[in-house]
Every structure is written in C-alpha cells, then in structure tokens.
Design brief:
The protein is of the alpha/beta class. It has two domains: 179 residues, D-Maltodextrin-Binding Protein, domain 2 (3-Layer(aba) Sandwich); 143 residues, D-Maltodextrin-Binding Protein, domain 2 (3-Layer(aba) Sandwich), CATH 3.40.190.
C-alpha cells in the first residue's frame, strides 16, 4: 500500500470524523410534558440542530442533578425561585437579548410582575401558572373549593398531593392566611401541622405518577399541575369528568423560565432554541397542548381552545420566591413531614 494512498485514506477518515463531531447539537433539561415532540422535531428539521432532551418533575430534582455535575446540559427551565438560586451560585450564563428578537412577543404586563429577574439577565419567562386541585366530578360531584378538601374523611386514600416542598408548604401557609414565602418559624411550624393532617388522609405525595392514576380513575382528586392531567386524560371526557380549581384561599404561583447554563459551550444553539420557542405560532402550539394561559401576547391569535384557568383566577395566589437562609427551616420541616416526626 503506497504512502500516497495511506495519506489519502487518513485525510478521508479525518474529514468524516471532523464532520461527524462538528454536528450541532443542544442538550435540554425540562419539565415533563412541557414541549410536544412535534415541536422538538420541527426545530431539529428547521435548524439542523440535534436535541438531546431529558426531563425532571421537581426543581429540587433538577438542581440536585446540576449540582452533582449534570450531563452537560445547555438549556434548563427552572422556576423563578431557582433562577435566583442558580444565578447566585454563578450557574447561569447571561443572555444576549440581541440574539432573541422574539422577546418582543412577551406580554409586558406579565413581565412587570416578575421579581426574580426583572431585566431578564439570566432567564426568559416561558410559562406562568399555578398548581391547583383537579376533581373527578363523576366520582366526587360535590366538593368544597378549598384546601380543606384534603381533610375530607370520605376521600381517605383517594387523593394525592405533589411531592414538592414549596408547593405543599406554600399551600398550607396560604390556607392559614400566611405568605407562601413566609420566613417566620412559628408560621412554618403551623403549616407543618396542616400538612401532617393532610398526610394522614391522602394516599401519598406524588409528582411522577399522579396524572396516570387520576386518568385511570384511581383518584377522586389530586393536587396537581393541570397540564400533566390534560396530557394523560381522554380528551373526549375531560370536559365532562374533570373540574380544575384554584382553592379560594389562594396558593403558590410560579413562572418557569428558559435559562442557559454557565458551563454550556453551545450558546448559539441555545439562543436559537429559546428564540424559536418564543415564536408566536410555536408558543401557541405548546400552550394549547398544555391548556395554560398564554404570556406571549402575539401567540393568542393562534390559540383555539380555553385554558383550564385564566390569569385573572390567580389574583389571590402568590409567586414562590427564594426565601434565602430560611430554606434550611423549610428543608428541615419537610423532612420531618416525610419521615413522620
């Protein structure tokens, strides 16, 4: 075999390796159910960027994985309080607004209410909403639109609550008339007693399988993210069988955001993905599937269904914020609840 032929073979091999390794890709870590698969495939087809897509069910799960080193993720979708935490720990990359022209589609009224990152230095709002209660009215037609539902003896072992510290403790605090962001130790201890009473009556704390259980008729009611149930329930029956409500006492409210991690080496691809999701016709398909209220003012013209709740219905709810050092008390109390102390 000649030296010339070997040189040519080496050049071809090097080219193939180089071309393969330089293929654009983006690693995304997002909430379960948030973006329909067809949207992801459409992005890949349009941009030629391959998506590596993983999901999580709680902010705590996401944060723990990132702190442990993660798997080379580029874009994550933390709630507002975790944007504050990640930014304070230098885990987020500043965003380049010039590369996000679709930012102009966001509703300025909503943006004015966001406190965790008002200048959108590290985060772009994606979805605004609330956990709430879903009731199968075919199985349980008469109910009180209150957090007290989880104390009803006739619902013993027929309900679940989210396995989420801030959501559950926030609900308990609100039920007592306190802020979901309370840092008062006496108020937190009082909320713990409320949650322990709920725990005695519910089947379990569950953030992963509640939607499937509810759709199968195993649960009469569930503290939930409604988009999970919408994805699992028979769409021909959901309007007849299911009532979603935000308890009259109010509850925790969230903004989930699009962020680029500081360790990402794919800034161009990450900005392209965020900008794509802000495109009105794309955002409309996402929000219509989730049946959540839109915070993209120019997407509304493409939305044909009705969300399970309106932004107006959140008037008595309160955004979850970073509670600083009080998170130590939250973590302690939540662990005491889980282990039954």
């Amino acid at each position: 075999m000649s030296v010339k032929f070997l040189s040519l073979l080496f050049a071809i091999t090097l080219c193939i390796t180089s071309c393969s390794s330089s293929r654009s890709e983006l690693h995304v870590y997002n909430w379960t159910y948030y973006i329909p698969e067809e949207i992801l495939k459409a992005f890949e087809k349009e941009t030629k960027i391959r998506l590596v897509y993983d999901v999580y069910t709680t902010n705590e799960e996401m944060y723990a994985k990132l702190k442990a080193g993660g798997d080379g993720y580029d874009v994550v979708f933390p709630s507002g309080d975790y944007v504050s935490i990640l930014a304070s720990q230098h885990m987020l990359s500043p965003l380049e607004h010039a590369r996000l022209p679709n930012l102009t589609n966001l509703n300025p009224v909503i943006l004015s209410k966001i406190r965790h990152d008002p200048k959108m230095r590290f985060s772009i709002p994606f979805v605004l909403g609330s956990s709430l209660i879903a009731v199968n009215t075919r199985l349980y037609p008469d109910f009180e639109p209150s957090w007290r539902l989880f104390l009803k003896p006739e619902l013993m072992q027929r309900t679940t609550m989210l396995d989420d510290m801030r959501e559950v403790l926030g609900a308990a605090l609100k039920s007592l008339g306190y802020s979901v962001n309370s840092t008062n130790e006496h108020e937190l201890v009082a909320a713990k007693q409320v949650v322990l009473a709920w725990k005695n009556n519910i089947l379990k704390f569950d953030t992963e399988t509640f939607a499937k259980s509810f759709a199968a008729g195993a649960l009469f009611a569930a503290h939930c993210y409604p988009e999970n149930i919408v994805q699992e329930y028979d769409p021909r029956r959901i309007e007849k069988d299911v009532t979603f409500f935000i308890p009259r006492e109010g509850g925790p409210m969230y903004v989930d955001n699009m962020c680029i991690l500081a360790k990402s080496t794919r800034s161009s691809e990450a900005h392209a993905f965020i900008n794509y999701l802000l495109r009105p016709e794309v955002y409309a398909k996402i929000i219509q599937r989730l049946r959540l209220p839109s915070i993209n003012k120019n997407a509304e013209q493409y939305i044909t269904n009705t969300p399970v709740y309106s932004l107006d219905s959140l008037s008595n709810s309160e955004f979850i914020h970073d509670v600083g050092s009080a998170i130590i008390s939250y973590n302690r109390i939540w662990q005491e609840i889980i282990i039954g102390k």
